[in-house]
């Protein structure tokens, strides 16, 4: 009995010694290759993961930045990381030296979205897809979506009338899903849309769950739902081909694409990109919309001014909103930009160094993760005076270069940014010209899931207001 314990203890000591020797060897090797940035790597193996997740992540990064400066190292989620909190460093990684840093995502997430999706790639395949995604989301393409987006948001809002308590984020997700589908797949048959919605929501739930293949686990359910999504998309593609429809939505662009050898994209590549773009579009835009509703609610004077701007547009032309009108909403547009800055929906991103890279005398070792910290840059008082104050007027002057990157920067920057902004302008237009609302509860915190959302998704009640134009129509009939 005692001998068995002795053997366990011995094995434990030997393993510890072995790992220690490897760590010391690696450390010596790193020291030979260059000077690592300052910072702490935390506890063996778990690094500083607990510190990161036991507090507001922005606070974790801000404290580090205060202590170590614009570049520092840490160890989180099993990865050695270099964090970059200056505009120049973000530009270095995302733009000027982007070829030295590849996108990196956990394998479990790649499996769920689909390994051929645009954001997992770089090089020729990425360039090809990016052109296709960009052209389907260009200003020229999305200008035709105004009436449909307005109809989607009006339909959603009408369901909330009468003071029903809603979870604002969940409702905004419904809108951004519909708009995403519209831009990606056009006007889908209702039964296809229902199938997509049902299965996509299971994938969405499993995305942030523990990645285990155990039957019945949220991750396993999500994998199965992802297979069903491929089947639905295959049916949609089949029908398109049969009817020889030439649509300009993303699916149309993907179906028509041929590379220089005349090769078309496979059905799996198309499905992965459709799910990928939908994924990139939904929670991000819904989160931004939820914050706009909160910020407007918390700033009554500003809300009145936005209402006045939007009601004037409505008065000028009592028909549905048109593209030109969406280009002339200066105050609302600044509210959108300031909401994106304040909320910093994508707080940071990940890349991986594909070679040893030197930045300002520091070594970023090959294989290490690199994280440009968008939120810290967008909340730095050096670039944005009184950064915690919601002040759209700060956008009367353009921000300094590389200090405002809500949609990222460089080769992987967001191709959906114009669609997202258009959607926000239209939703705000519909909301402030037709509704008043009250936020329920007075919590002010942020919930990360993983995008920042107001606590509990911002519970709120909405009431339809009788507008003067409605009243006028009523008296005339
Ligand atoms: C407020 C809403 C949105 C925000 C804040 C946002 C933010 C971002 C950011 C920061 C990136 C770059 C990530 C990185 O460099 O690692 C990105 C990439 C991307 N976004 Fe968005 N996004 C939004 C809406 C959308 C929409 C509506 C679509 C499509 C309809 C979309 C599609 C994409 C795609 C496909 C990529 C990957 C691009 C590539 O890898 O080349 N996004 N987004």
UniProtKB/TrEMBL annotation:
CDD domains: CYP90-like (cd11043). GO terms for biological process: sterol metabolic process. Belongs to the cytochrome P450 family. It is an enzyme of class 1 (oxidoreductase). Pathway: Plant hormone degradation; abscisic acid degradation. It catalyses: 2-cis-(+)-abscisate + reduced [NADPH--hemoprotein reductase] + O2 = (+)-8'-hydroxyabscisate + oxidized [NADPH--hemoprotein reductase] + H2O + H(+). It is a single-pass membrane protein. Its EC number is 1.14.14.137. Its cofactor is heme. Heme binds at residue 414. It comes from Tripterygium wilfordii. InterPro entries: Cyt_P450, Cyt_P450_CS, Cyt_P450_E_grp-I, Cyt_P450_sf. It is found in: Membrane. GO terms for cellular component: membrane. Keywords: Heme, Iron, Membrane, Metal-binding, Monooxygenase, Oxidoreductase, Transmembrane, Transmembrane helix. The chain crosses the membrane at residues 6-22. This is (+)-abscisic acid 8'-hydroxylase. Pfam families: p450.
């Amino acid at each position: 009995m005692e001998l068995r314990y002795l053997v366990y203890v011995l094995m434990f000591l030997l393993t510890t010694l072995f790992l220690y020797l490897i760590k010391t060897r690696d450390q010596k090797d790193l020291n030979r290759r260059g000077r690592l940035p300052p910072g702490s790597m935390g506890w063996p193996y778990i690094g500083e993961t607990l510190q990161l997740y036991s507090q507001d992540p922005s606070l974790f990064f801000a404290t580090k930045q205060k202590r170590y400066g614009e570049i520092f190292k840490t160890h989180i989620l099993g990865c050695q990381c270099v964090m970059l909190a200056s505009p120049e460093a973000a530009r270095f990684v995302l733009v000027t030296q982007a070829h030295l840093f590849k996108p990196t995502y956990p394998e479990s997430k790649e499996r769920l979205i689909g390994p051929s999706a645009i954001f997992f790639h770089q090089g020729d395949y990425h360039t090809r897809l990016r052109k296709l995604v960009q052209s389907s989301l260009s200003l020229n393409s999305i200008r035709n979506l105004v009436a449909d987006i307005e109809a989607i948001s009006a339909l959603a809002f009408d369901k909330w009338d009468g003071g029903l308590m809603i979870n604002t984020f969940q409702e905004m997700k419904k809108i951004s899903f519909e708009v995403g589908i519209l831009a990606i797949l056009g006007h889908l048959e209702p039964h296809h849309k229902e199938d997509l919605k049902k299965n996509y929501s299971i994938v969405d739930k499993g995305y942030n769950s523990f990645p285990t293949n155990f039957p019945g686990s949220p991750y396993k359910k999500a994998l199965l739902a992802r297979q069903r999504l491929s089947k639905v998309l295959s049916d949609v593609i089949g029908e398109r081909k049969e009817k020889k429809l030439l649509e300009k939505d993303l699916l149309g662009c993907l179906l028509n694409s041929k590379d220089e050898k005349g090769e078309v994209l496979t059905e799996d590549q198309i499905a992965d990109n459709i799910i990928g773009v939908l994924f990139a579009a939904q929670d991000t835009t819904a989160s931004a919309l939820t914050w706009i509703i909160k910020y407007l609610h918390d700033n009554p004077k500003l809300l009145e001014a936005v209402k006045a701007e939007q009601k004037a547009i409505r008065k000028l032309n009592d028909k549905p909103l048109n593209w030109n009108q969406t280009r002339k909403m200066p105050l609302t547009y600044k509210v959108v930009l300031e909401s994106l800055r304040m909320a910093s929906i994508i707080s940071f991103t990940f890349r991986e160094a594909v070679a040893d890279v030197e930045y300002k005398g520091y070594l970023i070792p090959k294989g290490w993760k690199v994280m440009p910290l968008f939120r810290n840059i967008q909340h730095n008082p050096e670039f944005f005076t009184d950064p915690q104050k919601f002040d759209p007027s700060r956008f009367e002057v353009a921000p300094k270069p590389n200090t405002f990157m809500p949609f990222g920067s460089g080769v992987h920057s967001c191709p959906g940014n114009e669609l997202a902004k258009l959607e926000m302008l239209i939703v705000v237009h519909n909301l402030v010209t037709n509704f008043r609302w009250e936020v329920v509860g007075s919590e002010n915190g942020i919930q990360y899931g993983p995008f920042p959302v107001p606590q509990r998704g911002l519970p709120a009640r909405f009431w339809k207001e009788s507008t003067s134009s409605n009243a006028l129509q009523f008296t005339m009939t």
